[in-house]
Design a protein that fits this description.
The structure holds 2 protein chains of 2 kinds. By secondary structure, chain A is mainly alpha-helical. Helices cover 69% and strands 0% of the residues of chain A. The longest helix of chain B is centred in the middle third of the chain and has 32 residues. Classes of the chains: A mainly alpha, B mainly alpha.
Chain lengths: 350, 85
């Protein structure tokens, strides 16, 4: 059995180990959180084992001017160890040295940098320099590295870098983001039409399940923006998303975002082949009740076309008198109308 | 302890090896115990390789850094890095 999100964590840990993810596909049978914890232990161990030595190398850097240290780092130390030493250098020293490094060398260092240690350093580097390094990482298709560095890149260079890539590339970076907040930062930078290209990339991705799972961790506003783009896609894409949300049991994450959509958007999401399945609509109704979204649920039900209304007669949740009573109660003034509609649908109404 | 005759089973042995390489208590890796011994050995071997590559990169980096330093500071740098001339 493969756990949700584990395949992406396998790719991330393989990146740390310098191996191909296929060598560790067996790890997908372990929960993602366990692989993530192991990855963090690995990264911590790389520093812990040699921290004193990295600090002594940092001490050596003080014996010569920053330009000489930079030249030695590029010629002798190599990107891997230079990245470790950068993590223990005082920020002001690291900034002076970094200004003399070639962007290519910093891009070589990037996979070995610990974002938690180098944030203050990156914050003091010129935006143009960060963009140059970022361009190289994107050109090299270093998605895992790029995603890890999102939280330490300032808004302006991040905006410029995000502007350079298409939906498929954005999806790769989103998939490998370490924290939901990192993903939210990128989503916030995307105008609606570019969010649409991200949605299209998700639809043809082998990681659609994982991508939809990521959506679960976003703010309601971002989920609504993404769902608005889903609603504008062709029917097969809309159906694929609805089916995926159902399959990974993500209705409770999707419904608050759907509730923010204008009513005229709902039919595009509600009238897809997946929602003809009574089990799907039953789960939607149950999730809406859990979230206490009765008025929205009624809005959704009245946005269904005839074929879908007919299918409602088979929905188990509507055969539950308690559930139906909750729907009627939660709509307030229009209770008689809603009762009549539900009765017409064959719901178990008192 | 488990397994025949009170010997630790293979999984426990590999997890102890992996924990040793990472410098953590084997208990921290207990959630990996669902993997079979072969899978754990593969993981342990990959970590061993990663550690060896890093160790080698440090040795080479330190040596070449010393050779690249201007000669007036090499002695002091050797002393700081604990490397004999």
């Amino acid at each position: 059995m493969s756990y949700p999100g584990s395949r992406l964590e396998v790719a991330k840990i393989a990146h740390v180990l310098g191996s191909d993810p296929s060598e560790f596909s067996f790890l997908a049978e372990v929960p993602a959180a366990v692989i993530r914890e192991l990855r963090h232990e690995l990264l911590a161990a790389t520093y812990r084992r040699h921290e004193a030595r990295f600090e002594r190398l940092a001490g050596v850097s003080k014996m010569v001017p920053p330009s000489v240290t930079a030249a030695i780092a590029q010629k002798a130390l190599g990107p891997q160890i230079a990245a470790r030493v950068a993590g223990v250098l005082p920020v002001e020293d690291a900034v002076k040295i970094a200004r003399h490094l070639e962007p290519e060398f910093i891009a070589d260092m990037a996979p070995h940098l610990d974002p938690r240690r180098i944030g203050p350093l990156v914050a003091q580097l010129a935006d143009d320099f960060i963009v140059d390094v970022g361009r190289l990482l994107l050109r090299r298709r270093e998605w895992v590295t790029a995603a890890r560095l999102v939280p330490v890149v300032a808004l302006e260079p991040l905006t410029e870098l995000v502007g350079l890539i298409g939906g498929a590339e954005m999806l790769q970076i989103a998939l490998y983001a370490d924290e939901p907040a990192d993903l939210e930062r990128v989503i916030d930078l995307l105008p609606d039409e570019r969010l649409g290209s991200l949605v299209q990339a998700m639809a043809i991705s082998a990681h659609l399940d994982e991508a939809v799972m990521l959506v679960e961790s976003l703010s309601t506003t971002s989920v609504a923006r993404i769902l608005a783009q889903v609603a504008q896609q062709e029917a097969p894409v809309r159906n694929l998303f609805v089916d995926t949300v159902h399959r990974i049991r993500a209705w409770e994450a999707a419904i608050p975002g759907m509730s923010q959509l204008p009513a005229e958007t709902l039919p595009a999401l509600a009238n897809v082949p997946a929602t003809l399945d009574p089990q799907v609509m039953s789960m939607v109704i149950e999730a809406a009740r859990t979230l206490d979204r009765g008025p929205w649920l009624v809005l959704l039900l009245i946005s269904l076309d005839d074929e879908h209304v007919e299918a409602l007669t088979q929905v188990p949740a509507l055969q539950d008198p308690e559930m139906v009573a909750w729907i009627v109660d939660s709509v307030g003034a229009s209770q008689r109308i809603v009762s009549a509609v539900l009765r017409d649908l064959g719901a178990a109404i008192a | 302890m488990s397994g025949l005759g009170g010997r630790p089973n293979v999984n426990e042995e590999v997890l102890a090896s992996l924990a040793g390489r990472l410098g953590v208590d084997p208990e921290r890796l207990a959630d990996l115990a669902s993997l079979d011994a072969g899978q754990l050995w593969k993981l342990d071997a990959a970590v061993a390789t990663m550690v060896a590559v890093e160790d080698n990169a440090i040795e080479v980096g330190v040596r070449e850094t010393l050779e690249s330093l201007p000669w007036p500071v090499r002695g002091a740098a050797r002393g700081l890095l604990g490397v004999e001339a």
